[in-house]
Amino acid sequence: MKKSFTLIASLLVTLTASASTPNLIDVYHAALQNDPTFQQALANRDIAQQNLPLAVAALLPQISLVGTGEYEKTQLHGSNIFNGATNQTGSASGTNKDRSLGFTLSLDQTIFNFTNWMDVASEKSAVKAAYATYTAAVQTLIQTTVQDYFNVLLAESNVIYTKAEEEAYYRQYIQAKESFEVGVKTITDVYNAKASYDSSKADYVAAINNLADQRENLRAITGIYYPKLAGLRSLPLATPKPANINSWSETAIQHNWNLQAANYTMVSDHAAIKAAYGGHLPSLAFNGSYENTYTDNIDRSGSSRSKQLIGQLNLTVPIYSGGQVTAQVKQDIAQYDLAAGEFEQTYRTTVNNTRQAYLGAISGISKIQADEQAILSNQITLEGMEEGYKVGTQTMTDVLIAQQNLYEAQLQTAQDKNNYIMSLVNLKQAAGTLSTDDVTVLNSYLSSQSISLNSPIAKKPNTSVKSKLYQAVSPTIKSTSQPTSSTQTKTEKNN
Fold first, then answer.
1. Rounded distance between C-alpha atoms, residue 345 and residue 335, angstroms
2. I want to staple 385 with a disulfide (CB 3.0 to 4.6 A). Which of 51, 150, 344, 399 is the partner?
């Protein structure tokens, strides 16, 4: 019973730790809700979508109803009044009261207006451009989120590497001091070891600051500070499909959203030229109205009702507008030339980014495979140095150098894995196929635990140099040591 309770408690602790470690999907959802740049893109899309109904409205009937009510009271003086009384002096006076009620129903309908029709065509393309720009913003948000997320993981690996390097140089410095004290080493050896140790401390501080910067970059798009993130568990290496750089280029030309937005903008500006030229052409419109008026003279008890139906065609022929239309046409032509230049630039950038991302993914596979082989070779070398140190054929310096080489190989692997991931993401973004499905796939490569940044500095030479610190450098394995560096502790408290 006690064992069962212990097992359940362990499972609960594991689940709690897993749930408390944010992963890539969690960060992406936060960015989707809080990134200001993306929210601006969403608002710009909504603004552009309403321009089309505004343009169409100019072609639709304009119907209005106006009601009127009037009351008029007139005071009359004189002998010839209708309903007055003659006073003792022979003069007459009276009051005339009139009231009227009515309404007017008006209808205005454009029959032909070339400018209005071209405005609609222009706004249709502008709406498509806005949607393409918005979709490109979604993909940019995915790309930025992935990059910032893995930059944090890489910065964490760099902290571990520089910490381990600092420890190695510290041990070397202590060994040089002890050797100098017994007369084996010179004071120059001590100074050289001290200089290397001081330099490694500076590198460690720089790594801590870089990690803080990367976390702030992630906070800038999510509005949330993440002290811990799920680390990389595994990363399958696969060649992009199709394995043809030209096929990817063709896909990008057809589906890249920035390129589509530039194309629709160019089409919209071309229609705007025609709309401006329409200012030289005549326009035809229909105007109709129905008027119903009721009039009543209260004093004479007389009333009347009038009804009037009017319909007319208005033909407007522009003759001279002070050069406004000509200037507008020239301006829109220049705007179209600008859009055409931007389209060409976007086209070249898209093709270039696609091909570079593809080549980066292909070379990334070879680099990672070479890095893993280098890790294996350096690990074997380290084991040989350790055995040699035990029997006296190798020095502590030899062992520490071998350890340092292993750290460097593992950090290089982490860097190349990061570059490989971003090459794949950039490739799909350039091709216009990047989606939340890719975020889900990348998230499946993450572990449920964060990377440990802890690695204590040894205060004296460690003759048992079978250190496990190098295991922490790889983002796939975590260290269980506790932090002792005052710089690291201070940074974490500030955050």
1. 15
2. 399
d(CA 430, CA 425): 9
- d(CA 442, CA 420) in angstroms, rounded, equals 12
Question: Contact at 8 Å (CB) between 434 and 428?
Answer: yes
Residue type, 408: E
Give me the pLDDT at residue 229, please.
Answer: 94
Could you tell me the CA-to-CA distances from 245 to 121, 254, 367, 431 in Å, in that order? 37, 15, 19, 11
Residues 6+ positions from 335 with CB-CB distance below 8 Å: 269, 272
State yes or no: pLDDT of 11 exceeds 70: no
DSSP category for residue 29: H
Q: How does strand 92-112 pair with strand 283-297?
A: antiparallel
Smallest Cα–Cα separation from 170: which of 203, 128, 215, 124? 203
d(CA 154, CA 421) in angstroms, rounded, equals 12
Structure tokens at 24: 């890539």
Q: What would the two tokens of residue 67 be? A: 């009601």
Cβ–Cβ < 8 Å for 31, 38: yes
380: closest CA among 417, 414, 405?
405
CA dihedral 108, 113, 117, 122 (to 10 degrees): -110
Say whether 481 sits in a helix, a strand or coil. coil
Instruction: Provide the residue ranges of all domains of the chain, joining segments of one domain with +.
Output: 20-53+119-271+327-494
Q: Which CATH number fits domain 20-53+119-271+327-494: 1.20.1600.10, 3.30.470.20, 1.10.3720.10, 1.10.510.10?
A: 1.20.1600.10
C-beta of residue 141 within 8 angstroms of C-beta of residue 221: yes
Residues 50-74, mean pLDDT to the nearest whole number: 87
pLDDT tens sequence across 384-407: 988 887 787 887 778 878 888 888
Look up the pTM and report it.
Answer: 0.78
Q: pLDDT of 348-357, one tens digit each?
A: 999 999 999 9
Write down the pLDDT at residue 470: 29
